User: Fold PaaX-like protein from Belliella baltica.
Amino acid sequence: MLDSLVTSKTRIKLLLKFFSHKNSGYLRALAKEFNESTNSVRVELNRLTDAGLLTTEEEGRLKVYKANEQHPFFSEISNMVAKFLGLDELMEKIVRRMGPVQKAYIIGDYAMGIDSGEIEILLIGQDLDLDYLDFLRDKTYEKLQRKVKVTIQESDPGEGVGIMIFGG
Assistant:
């Protein structure tokens, strides 16, 4: 979906990086992370900044980029990116079908905005449907081409149901 709207692969990587999580980055680190030339990353950073989608801050000699949360389309772009990654659908299915899930967290690389090909999930709850979990892993790989690694932790009594995505 997103790749049919946005034709630049570098721009897609930048949108995924900045709008899937509250990440920031500077030119050379982004070029290295994406395995792209600094020039191609610079061009797309400039386009996104000129469009008001990214903001910049000076940190010493570095120009640090991050998503402009004040942009009128920030929420919409974030939602499109989440749908592109399939994370919203994955988390909804987990909470709906796994049984008494109290909380679900996306952790690891995806939580930090890095597409390593593996989605790590921490589920908190008891008596969860492990057969459905195996089915979900297979379907997620088939649909998103991403492995799913799930850790299950016993539930905390008195805690409410919640979904969170966090990173470092």
Observations:
- Residues 2-77 form a domain with the Arc Repressor Mutant, subunit A fold (CATH 1.10.10.10).
- The radius of gyration is 18 Å.
